[in-house]
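cron nightly-structures :: item 1 of 1
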Amino acid sequence: MEQGSWELMVKRIYRQSAAALIASAVISIFFTEWRFSLSILIGGLVGIGNLRGIVWSVKALLGAEQAQSKMMVLSMFRLLLIFSALIILAIFGVIKAYGLLAGFTIVFIIMIKEGLIAAKRES
């Protein structure tokens, strides 16, 4: 996959995820409490932020010495930050677990869909 094509794919993932997350949060506000809708948005932002961190790590460490170990350390640090922020939000009762799962799943499904489309285009 060429550099320009995967950058376009990542941008499509960002756009589609934002639209799907906003739509699902707005729809869910009519059926559930505000924390669930907020949790959908936060879960989606975690998914998008994680993808953005992976893309940044790959760009920054491409061709570097010991790129695998550096990427592992960056990934562990990123996951520690995400986990810490989610724990703090959960302690204060701001988020709901199922909402986080829904938001993260929306982003994950869009990533899988775009990946399959790109793989089909390549073959």
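cron nightly-structures :: done
DSSP finds four helices and no strands in the chain.
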